[in-house]
Amino acid sequence: MVKHQPLQVYERQLCLSCITGIYGCRWKRYQRSHDDTTKWELLWSLILLFTFSLLLVWFYFWWEARNDYNEFNWFLYNRSGEWSDGTVPILATTAAGFTYIAFLMVLALCHIALGQQLNLHWLHKIGVTAALLTTIIGVISINQTWGHEWDVIPISLQATGPFLHIGALAAVTALSWIVARQVVHAEKTKFQVVVMLLYFSVLLGLYLVPLYINSPCIMDPNTLKPRPNVIGHQGAPMLAPENTLWSFQRALQMNATGLEADVAISVDGVPFLMHDHTLQRTTDVKKIFPDRQMDDASFFNWTDLQQLNAGQWFLKDDPFWTVNTLSPREKDLIANQSVCSLEQLLKLASYHNSTVVFRLRRPPLEHPRYHSWINDTLQAVQRSGVPQSLVMWTPDEHRAQVRQLAPALIQTSVDKLSPESLEKSGISRLLLRYNQASTQEIRNFTHSNISLTLYTVNEPWLYSVLWCSEVSSVSSEAPQILKKVPYPIWLMRLDEYYLMWISADIISFAVVIGIFIFQNYHIIR
Question: pTM for this structure?
Answer without folding.
Answer: 0.91
